[in-house]
Design brief:
The relative contact order is 0.10. Helix 6 runs antiparallel to helix 11 and helix 10 packs antiparallel against helix 11. The chain is mainly alpha-helical. The longest helix has 24 residues. The protein is built from eleven helices and no strands.
């Protein structure tokens, strides 16, 4: 174990060897208010929908001043992005220990995954969005709109970072199990997101957002959203395979 790793395990600073200072009363109060605002906003968005929820109602449910809510999120749309970023981050933490292609995934030892298996893995990656759409159709549609067309604000930037991470996960599946290690090495290189797999990943994520919006508007001609999205994934997988 290195000095830095040992210090981290002990909860001390690797440079001073001392424990980091505990958050002060002001920081704890701010964190508590933020947590209450997040909980209140999520509950109201789920119960009443995005459009019907007022910022004043969020403040009242969180037991904070309305101005405090605006300090954390300048607009209601940004408040929705704040909630989305927190939920997405929690989902990513829960999935952090899941095996990646070529690293203990059954059937992926040294060989490229079959197209159907790759499409299935990608469908699993986007399944939380489909589940959210079914449970909270109106707020989820607003999330999709904000991702595509929202103003450039801090919480939306956090959500976009999660979107890019999802695209990277999808691109890794499209490249195939045998290329997962190379994808890791190239991730920080300029232009690494311009290959066919990265382009395909962006098409899938953008397509998911658009189709979720069309589903809410009843424009999918009665087809189940799972069928539509799987068809989209299959087409992209086939196109990425042909481009290799």
């Amino acid at each position: 174990m290195t000095t830095i790793e040992g210090a981290a395990a002990a909860g001390t600073s690797p440079t001073t060897g001392r424990e980091p200072p505990a958050p002060g009363r002001r920081e704890r109060a701010k964190a508590d208010k933020r947590a209450r605002i997040l909980a209140a906003a999520r509950a109201l968005f789920e119960e009443r929908g995005f459009e019907a929820t007022l910022m004043s109602e969020v403040a009242r449910a969180a037991d904070v001043a309305q101005g405090t809510v605006f300090q954390h999120a300048a607009t209601k749309a940004e408040l929705l992005m704040m909630v989305t970023a927190a939920l997405w981050g929690g989902h990513e933490e829960a999935q952090a220990a899941a095996p990646r292609p070529g690293r203990g995934v059954p059937g992926a030892s040294g060989t490229r995954l079959a197209a159907g298996e790759t499409a299935g893995q990608i469908a699993d990656l986007i399944s939380p969005f489909v589940a959210a759409m079914r449970r909270w159709p109106e707020p989820t549609t607003w999330v999709a709109r904000e991702i595509l067309f929202g103003a450039d604000m801090p919480h939306r930037q956090q959500v976009l970072a999660h979107v890019e991470a999802l695209e990277d996960q999808i691109a890794a599946r499209l490249r195939g199990a045998e290329e997962a290690d190379r994808e890791d090495r190239q991730a920080a290189q300029p232009g690494s997101r311009t290959d066919a797999a990265a382009t395909g990943a962006r098409l899938i994520v953008t397509g998911v957002l658009v189709e979720l919006n069309r589903s809410r508007q009843g424009r999918i001609d009665g087809e189940d959203i799972d069928v539509v999205l799987r068809r989209l994934i299959d087409l992209v997988v086939a196109g990425a395979s042909a481009a290799r």
